[in-house]
Specification:
Shape of chain B: globular
Strand content of chain B: 25-35%
Largest sheet of chain B: 5 strands, mixed
Helix content of chain A: 10-25%
Shape of chain A: elongated
CATH superfamily of the largest domain in chain A: FAD/NAD(P)-binding domain
Number of helices of chain A: 7
Number of domains of chain B: 1
CATH topology of the largest domain in chain A: FAD/NAD(P)-binding domain
Structural class of chain A: alpha/beta
CATH class of chain B: Alpha Beta
CATH topology of chain B: Glutaredoxin
Oligomer: heterodimer
Radius of gyration of chain A: 21 Å
Number of strands of chain B: 5
Number of helices of chain B: 4
Strand order of the largest sheet of chain B: 1-3-2-4-5
Largest sheet of chain A: 7 strands, mixed
CATH superfamily of chain B: Glutaredoxin
CATH architecture of chain B: 3-Layer(aba) Sandwich
Distance between the termini of chain A: 38 Å
Largest interface: A-B, 32 and 27 residues
Order of helices and strands of chain A: EHEEEHEEEEEHEHEHEHEEEEEEEH
Chain lengths: ~325, ~110
């Protein structure tokens, strides 16, 4: 999806006009909504297709400060939402499909049909799981190929599975899958993992997990459902097939920023560029927070932090304009 | 009108023998994306009342039906007409996408 001009048949006559419009409903979006609501800016949040964001596909969140015993990702996001709503934020299950950041007020189209106007826009669209990009991976998605162990793990009881990746997500998915699978092969392209030490230790110590080093997945095998993956060892270029019933992809994320690329400066990976020490983009009145602009930290707590910054930046922008 | 609670026991009568198209949402309580699309599924049940049925299968309670249709990922949404799967969606999507696919099937009986 790239930014497409607003269709001519969309009407903005009598359209709702918001002072703060937030796109995305993860920790960044909901925190921006909380702060904007408490500043009496009556923000609206458009959730997009993944309300709650990436945390809805995780299980235990053990590193969000304040939750002493950890919290389930989906439950935490329900808390975030409830707290924003309590102060008057409006949350809409809609997807922003078009927008024009060059006009004032900013024109936004929701679900290809509803025109909405906004004085400021906070981009909190986050990032989505990346796939390898293999043809058979796409064909077998939902038929043994998955990027969400917590969603799909329970369908793989007593079978062998493969996970590809080397970061914390891959560790978490592998560990979660051991609840169901008889064996989890963790396939990684290098000879060391980039995951945090504590997660690496848990994986290495697990009797059901075996790591296949220096290896990439070149194909996903199976007619109607996954029966295996084809592997290539990158040190000696040898190929082999590994029989598995499920293949879980955990190789990182792509920022959901395609919609904004006509207007906002992004880096070569697509992350929105913001002015150092703020959430200000290259367009006045447009702010970016969370994983859509952060490829370094990518934590719930840092997303919440920049979400807060975006709301405060928007508030100052509106105050300066009014003054 | 709420979505129909489908089970291994009533799937035959409610879905396979239905006179109108049926949208079946395979879900579970522990699945975040399933919870995220639940409000959309509920809205569709009201909007299409009389023209199409909307039902939900809790895969934890009804593993037989999920297995029979090769459901390996949730949410999975299957569109039935005359007892046959005519369309499917895996993962969350916009409401208009569900509507588009339902609209294409409404009025068909086989």
């Amino acid at each position: 999806m790239s930014s497409i001009p607003i269709p001519h048949d969309i009407s903005f006559e009598g359209a709702a006009h918001h002072r703060v419009l937030i796109i995305g409903a993860g920790p960044a979006g909901y925190t921006a909504a909380l702060y904007a609501a408490r500043a009496n800016l009556a923000p609206v949040v458009y959730t997009g297709l993944e309300p709650g964001g990436q945390l809805t596909t995780t299980t235990d969140v053990e590193n969000y400060p304040g939750y002493v015993d950890g919290v389930l990702g989906p439950a935490m996001m329900e808390d975030f939402k409830a707290q924003a709503v309590r102060f008057g934020a409006e949350v809409e299950y809609g997807e922003v499909t078009h927008l024009d950041l060059s006009q004032r007020p900013i024109k936004v189209v929701v679900d290809e049909e509803t025109g909405v106007l906004a004085d400021t826009v906070i981009v909190a669209t986050g990032a989505s799981a990346r796939y390898l990009g293999l043809e058979n991976e796409k064909r077998l998605l939902g038929r043994g190929v998955s990027a969400c162990a917590t969603c799909d793990g329970a369908f793989f009881r007593g079978v062998d599975l493969a996970v590809v990746g080397g970061g914390d997500t891959a560790m978490e998915e592998s560990l979660f899958l051991t609840r169901f699978a008889s064996k989890v092969w963790l396939i990684h392209r290098r000879d060391e993992l980039r995951a945090s030490k504590i997660m690496q230790q848990r994986v290495m110590a697990h009797p059901k997990i075996e790591i296949i080093w220096n290896t990439v997945v070149t194909d996903v095998l199976g007619a109607d459902e996954v029966t295996g993956v084809r592997l290539r060892n990158v040190t000696d270029n040898s190929e082999r097939d590994l029989a598995v019933s499920g293949f879980f992809v955990a190789i990182g994320h792509t920022p959901n920023t395609a919609l904004f690329k006509s207007w906002l400066d992004v880096d070569e990976q697509g992350y929105i560029e913001t002015r150092a020490g703020s959430t200000q983009t290259n367009i006045p009145g447009v702010f970016a927070c969370g994983d859509a602009q952060d490829h370094v930290y990518r934590q719930a707590v840092t997303a919440a932090g920049t979400g807060c910054m975006a709301a405060m930046d928007a508030e100052r922008f509106l105050a300066a304009r009014a003054g | 009108m709420a979505p129909i609670e489908l089970t291994d026991a009533n799937f035959q009568s409610e879905v396979l023998e239905s006179d109108v198209p049926v949208l079946v949402d395979f879900w579970a309580a522990w699945c975040g994306p399933c919870r995220a699309i639940a409000p959309i599924v509920t809205e569709l049940a009201s909007e299409y009342a009389g023209r199409a049925k909307v039902g939900k299968v809790d895969v934890d309670v009804n593993p037989q039906t999920a297995m029979q249709y090769g459901v390996r990922s949730i949410p999975t949404l299957l569109f039935f007409v005359g007892g046959q799967v005519r369309d499917q969606m895996i993962g969350s999507a916009a409401k208009r996408e569900f509507q588009k696919r339902l609209d294409a099937l409404v009025g068909q009986t086989a």
